[in-house]
Amino acid sequence: MRYPHLPKNVVILSFEGPDRYAMVGGLGVHVSELAIAFDEAGYRTELLFVGDPALDAVEHRGNALTLRRWGQWISSHHPGGVYDGQWGKIQDYTRSAPPWIVDAIVRPAAERNERVLVLAEDWQVVPAVFELNHALHRAGLRDRVTMAWNANNTYGFDTIDFPALAGAAHVTAVSRFMKFELGLRGAQALVIPNGIPERIFADVNAADVAYLRRLLAARHTLLKVGRFDPDKRWLQAIDAVANLRDEGVPVQLVVRGGKEDYAGVVFGRAVERGLRIEDVHFERPDAQALAEALSASQADIVNIRSFLPDALLYTLYGAVDAVLANSGKEPFGLVGLEVMAAGGVAVCGSTGEDYARPFDNAIVCDTGDPRELATYLERLWMDEGMRARIRESAERTARQYTWPSVLEVLDAKVAFMSLSS
What we know:
Number of domains: 2
Largest sheet: 8 strands, mixed
CATH topology of the largest domain: Rossmann fold
CATH superfamily of the largest domain: Glycogen Phosphorylase B
Strand content: 15-25%
CATH architecture of the largest domain: 3-Layer(aba) Sandwich
Radius of gyration: 22 Å
CATH class of the largest domain: Alpha Beta
Number of helices: 16
């Protein structure tokens, strides 16, 4: 048995989830793919999240995966997404989810002489973790459950009583950086890395990658995807592109951001530096339409305003010269790992990206200085052998972080949790 210590019953507690209503960032991707990984490995899996109020409250997927969209009666009054009206949602989740878990999941599992693994994500569900711990004790079932709370970021840390949390559940983190952040608050944590689905490797179309590379070969093409947020070091990217252009280097930055107000600061800096910006839309979400739109633009910055399905995004990762995942504060850095899996060159920061090794499987920026980024990019472009080595090493690294491999890590950590409960 590949995972001998993982209970057959898994419950994941999270606000974010697979619905567009609940998918805000890396946390939504994390819990969605984790739930799928458990299901594919043969575990009865329940994902309780604050989902789309217009969809079914209960949805069965895969082999034994159940999505439970919690608090829809509240979400129907808050169309702005999962965090719209979050305080009321937190109260409802805390009041209603724990007793349901005890009666619907833990008690039947105990009657079958089975254990339950509860994995809770992010600060909004911490009150539910406390209440579930109390409810299990009251029911005499606490010894039937292994419970862990996972830190994916530092948001909401000021709301958490960490000593009390450590008494109710095991504390875990997605990287050594997050383990350090928890340590500053007096909480010891076990590191369980994030993962990527194995299908990424199959989703990359080699012919489309080659086609995109040919059409983009006239200049160096960089890509940056993510929320418009200061932590993502957008200004470092903008200034590095401007510096390279001033040196006579033919370079184009392709961006796909969000709707955050910080976009005004980012594009404002580009205008200050004399960079031309062009918004690009395309009707067909395929490699040919994307390649034609990018190659036809003469702008220094191409702002993609159309939806990019995952398969096309992965293809783009593999085709451009480098993907700028150069965050100044990154709990894990999922984009960098996805880039590696897609055969691309990732430019990472140096916080939570435990997998990144400078000039071996990635480019790593230690500072927010645009000159550092520009220097490393020029070195990359001058050394064809380095580019090939990085791409090859990156793919090997990515295969070590697929979800089946991450579940092996989790299995070992659960074995320890069982001893120390």
